[in-house]
Design goal:
Layout lengths: L1 H5 L6 E5 L1 H9 L1 H10 L1 H24 L4 E5 L8 H19 L5 E6 L7 H5 L5 E4 L5 H4 L8 E6 L1 H6 L3 H14 L6 E5 L9 H20 L4
Parallel strand pairs: 1-2, 2-3, 3-4, 4-5, 5-6
Helix pairs in contact: 2-3, 2-4, 3-4, 4-5, 9-10
């Protein structure tokens, strides 16, 4: 509530874990993937409890006045499209249907190799989707409906933390240029920016965005 009351010039989001990722942490990720095939009823029981917990957690965020939450569901990236639908997306949809409205959205994040999981992810009904650097955004964006926003995916480690400001600027401009045709695309890093990332690199990221936007608006050269 402190952030939502103090920050008025940009959206404020909370962060929550997704149901399958939470269940995987409780059950053990390797064991839950095996059990999803051998004992699905047990995993569904666990997911039902996880979903109810997350639902109440998201409601608590909503009461603070934030604009939404980013739901991180990376463990679902280890599943096949069919299992992702059954053990992740169907449960996320229950949360979305209850809490998402015109003033509060859920952004679904998955940093895995999710090229084949996009239809399942879209079935959740989330208003926005965030992708990690494991995928090429050009394999994702053609699958996204024009009214649905997609975020991604500058590498937060090898580019943002380890790279130089020049590298950050180069990679960011490269991504912006190749995704320019997609008006539902929003520039972002692929995941959280690691602690210890040089401030100069963060500045270079936003400077590249400024250069690109000026190129589009004013016809200037980058």
């Amino acid at each position: 509530s402190l952030a939502s009351n103090a920050i008025k010039d940009c959206p404020v989001f909370g962060g929550v874990i997704g149901p399958f990722s939470l269940a995987g942490r409780l059950f053990d990720i390797t064991k839950i993937i095996i059990a999803a095939r051998r004992n699905p009823h047990m995993i569904h029981s666990l997911l039902a409890k996880c979903t109810e917990f997350i639902k109440e957690y998201v409601k608590a965020f909503k009461e603070t006045g934030v604009n939404g939450v980013i739901m991180s569901e990376p463990a679902a990236g280890l599943l096949s499209p069919k299992l992702c639908q059954e053990f992740s997306s169907d449960y996320i949809k229950q949360i979305v249907d209850e809490v998402q409205d015109d003033s509060f959205i859920i952004m679904l994040h998955n940093c895995g190799h999710v090229e084949k999981l996009v239809p399942s992810m879209l079935s959740t009904g989330c208003k926005a989707y965030h992708f990690g650097n494991a995928v090429d955004m050009l394999s994702i964006l053609p699958q996204m409906p024009w009214g649905t926003v997609a975020f991604g995916n500058i590498d937060p480690s090898t580019v943002m933390k380890i790279g130089t400001p020049e590298t950050v600027k180069e990679k960011t401009l490269e991504l912006l240029e190749k995704t320019a045709v997609y008006k539902n695309y929003v520039l972002s890093t692929g995941c959280d920016i690691p602690p210890g990332t040089p401030v100069e690199n963060v500045d270079a990221f936003f400077e590249a965005l400024k250069i690109f936007n000026n190129t589009i608006i004013y016809g200037q050269s980058a």
